[in-house]
Amino acid sequence: MKRVRTSTLLVGAAAAAVAVPLALSPIFQSSDSETAEPVNDAQEMSLGEAAPDGLVIGSAVAGGGHHHDEDYPDPFTGDAPYRELLATEFTSLSAENQMKWDHLRPDRDTYAFDDADAIVEFAERNGQVVRGHTLLWHSQNPDWLENGNFGADELRAILRDHIETVVGRYEGRIQQWDVANEIFDDNGNLRTQDNIWIRELGPEIIADAFRWAHEADPSAELYLNDYSVESVNAKSDAYYRMSQDLLADGVPLHGFSAQTHLSLQYGFPSDLEDNLRRFEELGLGTALTEVDVRMPLAEGAEPTEEQLRQQADYYLRTLEACLNLSSCGSYTVWGLPDKYSWVPVTFEGEGAATIYWDDLTTKPAYDALLEALVDAS
Ligand code: XIL
């Protein structure tokens, strides 16, 4: 069993360092500090280090989205302690926005790879894998695409070129791609209206997207990804049927992932593990790709002890589902800390959804995840 730095292993001044990586901890800033107690490597274990073999622990890399406070710097380029935390705590990174169409494609003839390149290069320097997100989606598409009135042949060529160019650029450097994101609505119907690709090109375009991605990078694991598919329900049933069909047709589909954006007010999806297991039994990989647990929170208010305890429990149960599935090799939280989270921007009256406080100290949810990872190793 791996050892971990928890509060029970700590005394005195070292306890102050429990929440932040060594490099950020004030007591270690001066090498001759009287109060500094050496903390050995095992005690410095991060989430990524604590995870059992075959499981990477990821975070979204903030940037390119909407912040609730426009005064923040771009986190990835402007917030050094945040970067340091991403590098030390996680073994996988996801582009929160930087690989979406509106980011990569300012116009039809241009690919803007700077921000995406920076993430992939950062990950490589830090020995991390990358999840690519995303290739075929109804949201965050540029206006020139949505309002371009392209004919079917042209639109198909645009998508094919995009997938070949983007997936090809990072060939061998992206572990998993969310090829198709959120293609079903909550009733389990394909988004035949709001998804431009399905509307204009028909449902068959989904199989083509997987084929093109596979040709461009045969080593990347290709995923279907969505929210509200944690439980067995109309939407996850639709994915289950589609997965069966795609596999029967020999389409290179490798996995199904649940974003796992949870809220304390809607209860925990207690059949998460069973739901994912049926995909595992199809031979697919599974992953939790965007985990966060938001809660009702008045503007400027702090979460209560009870909310934090419940949040830790929800996070823990999502991780346990993954740990109990041999198919689940990737567990990613959707950003940190709360000030960089999409939640307060998107869900009015909710917040505090991540596992870190804004000063990059950890919440009880972090401790629960770390302990579970250590126990599983
Ligand atoms: C969100 C980002 O976190 C925000 O910064 C952005 O403004 C909107 O998109 N499902 C997904 C993600 O697949 O891409 C979304 O990310 C969250 C929901």
Question: How would you characterize the overall build of this protein?
Answer:
The protein starts with 46 loop residues before the first helix and ends with a helix. It has a single domain (13-376), classed as Glycosidases (TIM Barrel, Alpha-Beta Barrel), CATH 3.20.20.80. By secondary structure, the protein is of the alpha/beta class. Helix 12 (305-323) packs parallel to helix 14 (364-376). The protein contains 14 helices and 10 strands. An 8-stranded parallel barrel has the order 1-2-3-4-5-6-8-9, surrounded by 5 helices. (3S,4R)-3-hydroxy-2-oxopiperidin-4-yl beta-D-xylopyranoside binds next to loops.
Shape from CA axes? globular
Number of alpha- plus pi-helical segments: 14
Per CATH, what is the topology? TIM Barrel
- What level of helicity do the residues show? 25-40%
Bound molecules: (3S,4R)-3-hydroxy-2-oxopiperidin-4-yl beta-D-xylopyranoside
